[in-house]
Design goal:
By secondary structure, the chain is an alpha+beta fold. The chain folds into three domains: 98 residues, Beta-Lactamase, CATH 3.30.450; 68 residues; 190 residues, Hypothetical protein af1432, CATH 1.10.3210.10. It contains 17 helices and six strands. It has a six-stranded antiparallel sheet, with helices on both faces. This is HD domain-containing protein. InterPro entries: Cyclic_di-GMP/3'3'-cGAMP_PDE, HD/PDEase_dom. Keywords: Coiled coil. It comes from Oceanispirochaeta crateris.
Length: 371
């Protein structure tokens, strides 16, 4: 256990009931970048950050319960995490410090992204208020439309188009907000949207349905906004408990998209909720099978998996197109709709070529929805 903790850059000392640290572990003091004292020393002298919480610390020592945490304490060149917990023996606690210097840059970056997301959320709220006010005015206008002339009808159509354009802008902004949480995905959401259109159009969907599919697919991972950073940004495979939490992004996304009865948001809800369902019923969250799964969910499932396979992630290299295609073919009839897999292979080259498009092309140029 000691070697494991050292490997994790975690070191400890004992704290007695007088709140005096008993120096025994030289690595502990090396991490603090100071000489190991020759005798007991007050915790306030070593960690001035604990001044004012003496009663709380004494309670941890005396009662053998409770914890005290301080993150991102700066010591010279190092950042440390301070954790005080009851000791195994009575009348003392354990002071554990962890070297989190390497995490500090990532933490600062994540904090910046969170601040940007908070600002974006407020901007979206203001835009939504603006839309609600506009719709209220539009409702009043529609109540009197029967008695109005052709010019008024033309004005209503123009205003409606402006409102729809604003709604589409909000959808793409929401999609980007979700992508901000996962800094390694690049243009993933926009490739998913365009790949879905390529597959849907080839499969026979109308231009209107392809347009709805595009904007709905952009929001397929919106629920990741509600997944903790420790799981979403983990640079390695997730354990079973972490996977259980990660799978909740489907229901979180669906819940976020359930507050509007607009057809577009209804479609987006289905994509968010069902894009991890499988043809044989072994997927999640509802365990639907076959054509029980909405078509837009089945389309998004294929392109989402394929793009993830041929894209580099923190925990894996990008797979070759040939190997990724073999996985899609192997999943035909079990993971994926067999008829969609056949159609997918017909548009494979166009989907692969999306990897060469710039972020500006992916984000700002609309795909061809067909005639």
């Amino acid at each position: 256990m000691i070697n494991i903790l050292k490997h994790l850059n975690i070191y400890w000392e004992k704290l007695d009931s007088s709140l005096m640290i008993q120096p025994e572990n030289r690595d502990f003091w090396n991490l603090l970048e100071q000489d190991m004292p020759s005798g007991p020393v007050s915790i306030e002298d070593i960690f001035p950050e604990t001044i004012g919480v003496e009663d709380e610390l004494r309670n941890i020592v005396s009662s053998g319960s409770g914890t005290f945490h301080l993150r991102y304490i700066k010591r010279q060149k190092n950042f440390i995490h301070l954790n005080i917990t009851p000791g195994e023996a009575s009348r003392h606690a354990v002071i554990a410090i962890e070297d989190i210097t390497e995490d500090s840059v990532k933490h600062q970056s994540i904090t910046q992204k969170k601040n940007e997301t908070s600002l974006l959320k407020r901007q979206l709220e203001l835009k939504n208020e603006e839309l609600n006010r506009a719709y209220s005015k539009l409702d009043t206008l529609m109540n009197t439309i029967r008695s109005q002339n052709h010019h008024l009808e033309t004005e209503v159509r123009r205003r409606t188009k402006e409102l729809n354009d604003s709604r589409f802008t909000i959808i793409t902004t929401l999609a980007q907000a979700a992508e901000f949480r996962d800094m390694e995905t690049g243009g993933h959401i926009f490739r998913i949207g365009r790949s879905s259109v390529l597959l849907g159009k080839k499969y026979g969907l109308t231009s209107k349905d392809c347009e709805s599919l595009f904007y709905s697919s952009l929001l397929h991972d919106l629920g990741k906004i509600g997944i903790p950073d420790s799981i979403l940004l983990k640079p390695g495979p997730l354990n079973s408990q972490e996977w259980d939490l990660m799978r909740q992004h489907t229901t979180i996304g669906a819940s976020l998209l359930s507050n509007s009865d607009h057809l577009l948001f209804s479609s987006a809800r289905d994509v968010a909720l069902y894009h991890h369902e499988k043809w044989d019923g072994s997927g999640y969250p509802a365990g639907l099978s076959g054509e029980q799964i909405p078509l837009i969910g089945r389309i998004c499932a294929i392109v989402d998996v394929f793009d993830a396979l041929i894209s580099a992630r923190p925990y894996k290299k990008a797979f070759s197109v040939e190997y990724a295609l073999s996985i899609i073919e192997k999943g035909s009839g079990s993971h994926f709709d067999p008829s969609l897999v056949k159609t997918f292979k017909l548009v494979l080259d166009d989907i692969v070529n999306l990897q060469n498009d710039s972020m500006e092309e992916l984000e700002f140029l609309l795909p061809d929805f067909g005639s």
